[in-house]
Amino acid sequence: MSSAQRQDLVVFGDHSVISDQIFQNGFHHLITITASPFTSPTWLINSLVESQILGRPYSLNSDSSAVQGHSRPVTVGSFVHEPQLFHNALGKLKVSPQKYKVVDLVTDLVAKSLGKPKNRLYNDILQQFPLQAQSVIVLEQPELLLSLLEGSTSDEIHSQLIAPLMKRCSVLILATNIYNDGEDTTRDSLELSRFTLGCIYKSIAIMSLRPLETGRASDVTGTLRITRGGACSPVHVLENEYLYLNQKETTRLFYR
């Protein structure tokens, strides 16, 4: 792998990570990142945020010559990671904290949800994200609300959180974990699967992270597969698969 050529992260046909054309005409789009419990999407989330603020994800391949885009407002919210995780990672990439916003969805979430009607909780979450055209919102693992809020369903989260959140930005990037191995048929597992399928059907692009099928390797961490989603994209999605290697402060991509 050390002799393999590093590759730029390219998602769309105009050789961009997130194409400028997606932000035109006032439409709202969804891009989904799927991961397994054994693959962390944090590095990919940070790279996508970096690409929108700095024009390209320098932390992936700093010697690349990818097309630079416009700096856009970005808001990040996670149901599993505290804001400081993103501040630390983006700080190492020399991204100014004035260029992005991190919403704290973790601190006291359980306490805040006790005794509160679900529609009010959804509304409280939504109000933390700015309503801003030409902006990007990143949301990590909202499916955890299925376990937190008794009686919640996939349809409910999509209708009361995901759809309204998409209307607050031009591009919503949603990261979700895939838990179901196909054998678990409990209600919770089925709802998690339905949630992920709903995201895929609504997305213009899917970015899937998987561990190596052969186990661990010293020079490869896992695979990143890019495919088209169920929604029409204004720009052609370049379906591709990369090998990636997570290092201390950078990630390297290689064609498989």
TrEMBL record:
Record-linked InterPro entries: P-loop_NTPase (IPR027417)
Gene3D superfamilies cross-referenced by the UniProt entry: P-loop containing nucleotide triphosphate hydrolases
Protein name (database record): Elongator subunit elp6
Organism: Zygosaccharomyces mellis
Lineage start: Eukaryota, Fungi, Dikarya, Ascomycota, Saccharomycotina
